[in-house]
Amino acid sequence: MRFIDEYRDAEAVHNYARAIRELTTRPWNIMEICGGQTHSIVKYGLDELLPSEITLIHGPGCPVCVTPIHMIDRAIEIAQRPEVIFCSFGDMLRVPGTSLDLLRVKAAGGDVRIVYSPLDAVKLAEAHPEREVVFFAVGFETTAPANAMAVFQAKRLGLRNFSMLVSHVLVPPAMEAILSSPNNRVQGFLAAGHVCTIVGTAEYQPLARRFHTPIVVTGFEPVDILQGVYLCVKQLEEGRADVENQYARSVRAEGNREAVRIVEEVFRVGPRKWRGIGEIPQSGLALAEAYADFDADTRFPTDGCDAEEPAECISGLVLQGVKKPHECPAFGTRCTPENPLGAPMVSTEGACAAYYRYRRQPVGAGRAR
Amino acid sequence: MTADMEFTLTCPAPSRDHSRVLLAHGGGGRLMGQLISSVFMAGYGNPLLENRHDGAVLDVGGARLAFTTDSYVVQPLFFPGGDIGTLAVNGTVNDLAMCGARPLYLSAGFILEEGLEMETLRRVVESMRAAAEAAGVELVTGDTKVVDHGKGDGIFVNTAGIGVVETDLTIGPMSARPGDAVLVSGDIGRHGIAIMAQREGLEFETTIESDCAPVNHMVGDLLAAGIEVHCLRDLTRGGLASAVVEIAETAGLSIRLDESAIPVREDVRGACEILGFDPLYVANEGRFVAFVPEADAGRALVIMRGHADGAGTNRIGIVTDVGAGQVTLRTQIGVDRIIDLLSGEQLPRIC
To answer: What is the C-alpha to C-alpha distance for residues B223 and B164, in angstroms, rounded to an integer?
Structure first.
């Protein structure tokens, strides 16, 4: 398949792996931000091709995983209302709240629907004026423009029965939080290519400079990722800390201006709690004042009880890259995709689910070197 | 942000029991296996049922009969390459074929929703007639129920079938051996993507047609040629990956598949990329895997490729060992990874 196969080419992969081995003289910890990259790394066994000095740390870039439990509970509370058609991307349905998930709400009679675009939810609202249609807007900068467009359209159409439960997060503040943390081990980043397709690369320059940390904007296919690692290691070995763009076929430095404009029109930046990490200032999007009427969180009353987050799983440490999924005592035993203890075991992009699905033991003995 | 910011390191959620049936319980994955074990096996398990094969093989009056049943709830009722009627006949025919049986007779039970257009029912019945004729079976008994409007989904069909086992081979996971070649009877994933595209209004450059077809003639030819068939499994919900994992787990076999040898059409791959699906887990309705001894693999390939529905047959892997019960995939970049069952399904309700 064109535009796919060349980025999964075995020879190119092995050439990059060899080049990385030749380049590496010291141990380096590199974090790939995005869950899609984590999935590719584990699925294709890319970390097994790297020299033992390179540790890939799996970052918090899975929107499903970092959506706080109180937002899941809020979504469940709203989805249980009889007048509501609750629309979500498929992955969110299986994420456990305090005592339920959206699939169980559906099984108990709630009208919960999987949509492929937020604009489909707007169409549902038009088609069902007697119902309240709520869209669960989750994601990073990548999904924000389409979600913003849905609210924009709903306002333009004068829809009074459409609203959005917003739990949007932004990548650069999370990178800043990780780099600022006293237990940080990250020395270089592979930034998420699709996020930068929207917002460009300008935001990353100050981070790279301030923390003297190389940031390589990287795609998602095996060749992309190894090329990203190569560029990152090269910078580390040379003592540089620049922003580089591996994913130039998709990312322009200025990003997608139109997309940014609609996001800025509809959303405002504010603090946001990240599941497993805690609140990070200026790291989320909420509806702007002019669109506040479309906020599902204020439209529907809540019983206001705070979600409790009991403490068996170590996903906070996993999301920060301090621990690998299989280092959790519950991994694969008390915590599986059928009975997840934490969100990273739920989403297909979660680090724990990727490890569970593609390998059950630490990488090591079978290094392909 | 302050430099001494501390992370709070908790994110768990309580584990839950399954007090209600979820759609994922019907998805052909891990949850469905748990449902079968904890409810059905616990309720009326017996040695025949515990074989967990596509059908039961029964000794009756000196003959060996294969017996199976399946229900069909697909939406949309009509899709490129087939409809609920062709599925209902081919699905049951194929389950019998996987027991090494020659399918003979089918029953058809209909649950119809009040208000269904008679013309729709006629089209489905005509499809079933044509599919039965193609497979060489007869529909010899049936049942009809009508439920209130809103209590059904147009048409649900159940078929049961019996066939006669004329081979002396015991075909099933326990007969597979280290060294066996694993063959798949054609490109995978077309049925699931055809349904998905139709249901969600997705349009691709070409129309992707379901692979729905009877495979009993192909299996019959393998047996007639004296191929020492060890195990057969048709690929339905859960796709190729789930079928192979189930065989590996049942018999404790280690199986290695070669990603680059698994046939997937370009348009199906493209659709999977767009939808975020893994074609290994996408449903099929006219494909099966055959485990045969290395010595017979070449002949089996020729026989299967000689059928129009088996023209794309390929050798995709090997049974490497007994004991571990694990399936690995040698990826196209040459690294091995494990293949496991999904907990639920990638697509809602396909067949």
So the answer is: 13
Q: Which of A298-307, A358-367, B51-60, B61-70 has the lowest mean pLDDT?
A: A358-367
What ipTM describes this predicted complex?
0.73
The number of helix segments (H) and strand segments (E) in chain B equals: 10, 14
Q: pLDDT tens-digit profile of B212-258? A: 999 999 999 999 999 999 999 999 888 999 999 999 998 999 999 99
CB contact under 8 A, A10 and B337: no
Domain hosting residue A228, numbered range = 5-54+175-238
What would the pLDDT profile of B133-147 be if each residue is shown by its tens digit? 999 999 999 999 999
B3 pLDDT above the threshold of 90: no
Residue A255 touches partner B, C-beta closer than 8 Å: no
Give a yes or no: residue A338 inside a domain: no
State whether residue A235 is helix, strand or coil: helix
Q: What is the DSSP letter of A212?
A: T
pTM of the prediction?
0.82
Give one DSSP letter per residue of A122-184, joined into a string: HHHHHH-TTSEEEEEEEESTTTHHHHHHHHHHHHHTT-SSEEEEEEEE-HHHHHHHHHHSTT-
Count how many domains chain A has: 2
Instruction: Write down which residue in A186, A213, A238 finishes a domain.
Output: A238
Identify from A41, A114, A358 which residue to disrupt to test chain B contact, counting B C-beta atoms within 10 A and taking the largest count. A358
pLDDT at A310 over 80: no
The domain that holds A25 is classified in CATH as 3.40.50.11750
How many other C-beta atoms are found inside a 10 Å radius of the C-beta of residue A361?
A: 11
Residue A109: burial class (beta carbons within 10 Å; 0-12, 13-18, 19+):
exposed
Domains of chain B from N-terminus onward: 46-165 (3.30.1330.10), 173-339 (3.90.650.10)
List CB contacts (< 8 A) between B15 and chain A.
Answer: 334-335, 339-341
